[in-house]
Hints:
The chain is 37% helix and 16% strand. The protein is α/β, with parallel strands linked by helices and 627 residues long. It folds into 3 domains: 5-216, Glutaconate Coenzyme A-transferase; 235-534, 3-Layer(aba) Sandwich (Glutaconate Coenzyme A-transferase), CATH 3.40.1080.20; 559-624, no CATH class. Strands 1, 2, 3, 4, 5, 6, 7, 8 and 9 form a 9-stranded mixed β-sheet that branches. An 8-stranded mixed β-sheet has the order 15-14-11-10-16-19-23-24, sandwiched between helices. Helix 9 (260-274) packs parallel to helix 11.
Amino acid sequence: MPSTKFFTNLEDANNFIFANTSKHVHCATPLGLGKPNQLLNLIYQTAKKDPSIQLKISTALSLEVPHPHVELEKNFIGPYAERHFGKDYPELDYVLESKDRKIPSNISVHEFYMQAAQNMNVESAQRNYTSLNYTHVAQNLFDENLDVIVQLIAEKKHPVGESTYSLSCNPDLTLDVADLFDNAQKKVLIIGVVHPDLPFMGGDAEVGPEFFDAIVNSEQVKHKLFALPQTPLDTVDFMLGIHASQFLQDEGTIQIGIGSLADAIVHATLLRHAKNDVYKNMIEKIWNEKVKPKVNLFTNTFEKGLYGTSELVTDAFMHLRKAGILKREIFDVDQKLRRYLHGAFFLGSNKLYEWLFNLSEVDRAGFSMTRVSKVNDLYDNHEQALRRQRQKACFFNTCMCVDLLGGAASETLPSGQVVSGVGGQYNFVAMARELPDSRSILMLRSTHTSRGVTTSSIDWAFAHLTIPRHLRDVVVTEYGIASLRGKTDEEVICALIEIADSRFQDDLVKKAKKLRKIKQTYEVPVWARNNYLENIKRFLNSYPAELFLPFPFGTDFTPVEQRLALSLPLIKAAQPKPLKLIQMLMDGIKADKKQFQPELQRMQLDQRAGVKAWVYKNLVTGALTRL
């Protein structure tokens, strides 16, 4: 077997790749954090300069530094982005050039999952999107004649002997793809690029140098890791978290998807564990006003704890571990060790990366990064062990819309425009039906607003469903819980209408009656007719404000930036409605500007003259008065 090549610069690694492949190069690189952006840019530029090379890049979740075009957003995001991501962050050339339609014809980029809404108007990204379950990607790469994998790795040096390496944030597909090629006795190049700040993760992610064809350890690679900015939680997020958290059982299993709703679940779970009296009081008030669904719900603390198995490890699991909740251990048959968490890839804030980098020996020993087929499926050599380990499982994911028959659209608009991707959502929804005493909980906001028009996220039918109706289980909105498993179409329709925004309930009832799917005598019960945002705001406001802070887990924003992060979206929301925008402007004119001088200074509006600056200054001030 050829020995591993070691390079101290990225250019040599790039030359090695093209010297060991043909003119048709299929290059895969991990989703999210594990991309070696600098090496990928060299590969891209090499193909761009030589039209005889046909380059195909297969990946997912190509992370982007925000580049807003609207002046107010630019003034806010610009200084923050430079501080947060660093001046020297190497952005992906193929991402930047795809926005301007500059990707040459001899290069194509194919993603099976995209950063939410980032590529809605990017023609090449929409055309080349590949719709796949996460667990099917490895086989697809094998079938598509993959040539090379490039990814960031972590290194552990030893006093004696050679270094060991970790696939760190992305063992997810690399391990599965490598096995497929080994079993078929076919060759795929694997190139690892060491990043000094990448946490060294054990478990299946730990490999020897022989795993790679080449390892790059270069001073060129010293940029910051891409960290997700923390986003604020709002009233809807908090209520969704409170409802969903009732499904968690002590001594159970948890999987959580990405986004602010994940933070909301964890926030409510921490509240349940640390301030159980307050939590129980909240739940009691909720069910005193509504009819409790016929489903097992729980409010006790986590004495024996939870075990985590999640394709994505985010800050959520760090918070659960620190709170003493993520502590149920299972026996990992492959590794012969006890584990409290299995993950396939991680992506989160700087705080998450720091925590992972500095894990105590106990925390590190119980945390295994592994292949996605192990996390997202049950079907391996130890299937029965996996089934026993994943007891009382709750699989939390988000969707955009739910139809009245229980199907869910999570990633594609009716137009066919892809917002994100399937990822592992289908895997976990299906797994919930395979495991006893387990539930799939799909969470969604009851409404969505586009160009000033608000519509119901629960409606009669949606195109391009991610989850078919026959897998319907639990749906949660800010107004309650609909338990759909095993129910008739009529029962499902009524349950979903009862957690819809009350502004749309009558129309939903009318549609269902017209199609004879519910009784003509059905009426929305009185207890479900008060599903209005102001009511849940009133409910949360009846508790101390410190329980529901917009940034419950902290933020990289300064205090001034936090206020701006909460107020600037109000301006954007008002834009489609001129009267609201004018009222906000008037509020700003009347307000005392001295009170908001730090915010105006941060937005570079304190010294500017002219009509445009005057309008912006008063709009920002008007929005700030509404916090």
